[in-house]
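User: I'm new to structure prediction. If I give you an amino acid sequence, what do you actually give back? Let's try with this one:
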Amino acid sequence: MNEADLIQTSKNTNQKGNAVQSPWSKPVDEITELLSVKPEYGLTSDEVKKRRKKYGANELRKHEPKNIWLILLDQFKSLIILLLGVASILAFLFGEKVEGASILAVILINAAIGFFTELRAIRSMEALYSLTQVNARVRRDGQVREIPAMEIVPGDVVVIESGDVISADLRVLESNKLQSDESALTGESVPVSKQIDQLPGETPLAERKNILYKGTAVTRGSGAGVVFASGMHTELGQISSLVQETKEEETPLEKRLDKLGHRLIGVTLIIAVFVAFSGIMAGKDLFLMIETGIALAVATIPEGLPIVATIALAKGMQTMAKRNALINKLSSVETLGATSIICTDKTGTLTENKMTARKYLLSIGMIDVVNDHTIKFLLNEEAIIPSEHFTLKEALEVGILCNNATFDDDKSDHASGDPLEIALLEAGRMAGMSRVELLDIYPEVREEAFDPDIKMMATFHENNDRYRLAVKGAPEAVIAVSQKISTENGVVSLEEKDKEWWLKQNDRLAEQGFRLLALATGDLEQAHDVKPYNDLTLIGLVCLADPPRHDVKPAIEQCKSAGIKIVMVTGDHQATARSIAQAVNLVEDEDMNVIQGSSLEKTIELTRDEKQEILSTAIFARVSPKQKLNLIDLHQKAGDIVAMTGDGVNDAPALKKADIGIAMGQRGTQVAREAADMVLQDDSLATIVAAVEQGRVIFGNIRRFVYYLLSCNVSEVLVVGLASMVGAPLPILPLQILFLNLVTDIFPALALGVGIGEKNVLDRPPRSPEESIMEKKHWMGVVVYGLIITVSVLCALYIALEVFRMPKVQSVTISFMTLAFAQLWHVFNMRGWRTNIFKNEITMNRYVWGALLLCVALVLSAIYIPGLSDVLQVTNPGLKGWTLALVLSAVPLFLGQFIKEFGSKNEKIVESFDI
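Assistant: Good question. You get back a string of structure tokens that encode the predicted 3D arrangement of the chain. For your 915 residues, that looks like this:
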């Protein structure tokens, strides 16, 4: 169970709309009187109509499908998109319709890609939310009827059987071995036995054994309950409200892109004014320089950034979908790559949510049960055959006989009943024993049902002319009534000192996180009219646990190597949490500190040292939903990017609060999936690791193409700016600038954006949350690359004009071509400096080669297609012109590769060129 108050409002259930206050503290007769219902008759049809008007439908607030227009509008909520929009308007105002239309096309293409990708993801998520219609059996007008669960009203008497999903909050009226699985609500992996007796008013939620909660499942028995809360007034509804009140965090990528956009605004204005002013002062045409200033301002804004970022993220979403991770928002893909903390639930996330028998403590010693590819029973680390050891065989048989679970020996997943009893049947199957076969040998003639007061259960079985008694229960209870103990050499007396030893062993094993049952037997002359719990023979203790998932341990190791801290946040016991943490190597033994959820109750009042202890701790037990929110908030304020995994209703508020919420698709509840940013369809932590890797690759790709775009755009600014300052002809005209932006800003950048990335991204620590897409060192590299390209272009222009004495239009064409090809070859400078010059993430990217071929074709079309060449004011450069352009355009490539190769020996030199 989580803390006493599952959420802050749970202590009193926040019962405004409830028909009865604190129903667990009132006797059954008072409850039914307050609800004006006779349990054996139920409500009348007329009364149901009245109550439905008063209380409404029995449903949670519906998950409203995201409006299609809002999805479209979201695509324009970007500062860079705003800048492009302004640039497009300015182009139209100055009569440059081609430029304006080109920029507008970029905006619309970006919006279309983002819109359809996100729409598909959102609709896929909504498909997960669509659940089949749940029905319930209620007593109305003296008859049991099956009705849609949403039609239930307070006062309805619900008939319950094993396997039912509870559709409203019920006060138990009848209980026949009734148990419910409340793990989705409380985090407890063991079913809770239900009773009808009243409880004290201050009883915490998980100990209200006379209440059945909406969204939980009946695992055993039958009974009936009266509805005292429906819809949003149930415990499930209260948590759903808390989810809706939790503020959703802006993703790191959104923050980074917005920050980059703000920087570009200032740079854009400065460039436009400077270039226009310097050209005018040099005597150039006023309108031409204003037009050039605007063109360069537009060039400074990387038009391809929104498109390429959107496509890169969309590809990431598709890749993750193939890996069983469904993501509902583009930017969430990159968020995982920045994750530094993963807060994970225990039950169903780190563990199987399935109890198994792990050890048997018998008179012959401790026997370990191992099911790792091959099934083994180990005594002193040596495999033994159960049938050859009397006490082990007897323990397994008693566990099978004193049992009400059903089990398919061929398909162990086809089982129903108490998970502890299923675990005992599974242990028997592993030893080659079948309940059906055992009952043929020892037919059951009587059962003494489990009694919560004495904490034991017994079954009587024919054994020739006598009866075999099989007993299981709480160790302290069974040991107390046992007089003898079974050994390999027969039955011997159980002395008081022996009982003390067994009780100490029980405490020791409980501290290790095991749930324990004692097994005992007896030999009787008759099965009826005898008390079962007298003169028992103790067989031993069975240690049960919810085992870790097989894929968790390697996933945690990968996270450690990636510098990601895993934090277990569970509602379970401290000992259980510590045991699972040890089993999956969550932390080293010396760091095995466990903090109780109560320490997270009022984090605002904590001292600095107390906060630091919480931030350095990896295991938290007995944590409520509100306390999870406080823990996430502490880590976020400390500068961490927090991911939260979970599957239960109790996880939903934290899933929404976290930077990225990750819900389990197989075990996850509807409420958890609605609150999450990502749903794991295979419930595997290994899928999270794959998502982290993909997120890091995507951020690297985004940084790579932004670096490429800006270095290309800086070269354009410097080429025009320097030429204007010295009074030389413009090496590239305004429309040519926009043409190159559409070519180099989109296709090569797009190829970089969808690359496979470097292979060692998980061997590095996560990025700092404060780290920008472009750090200071990257801006230095951008300027250096821009200068190298600029010098090549200006040299080409000078040689064409002054050496070859070519006409101005032909010379400008050569400088235009030199700039175009220099930018295209520059894409190969985007490799990581630690990679091989010929075999790296750029040269192995088939999209890069495709983009280069396309761009070369577009440049050739600009020169040789009539009409287009006239618009761009270019002409055939001739053989000399082609030679000059190709040679000088290759200079930046060779210098860039030289820097990276030289820098591999001197990291300080290459730091600015490392992407």
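You can read the tokens as a compact description of the fold. Here is one thing that stands out. The longest helix spans residues 685-726.
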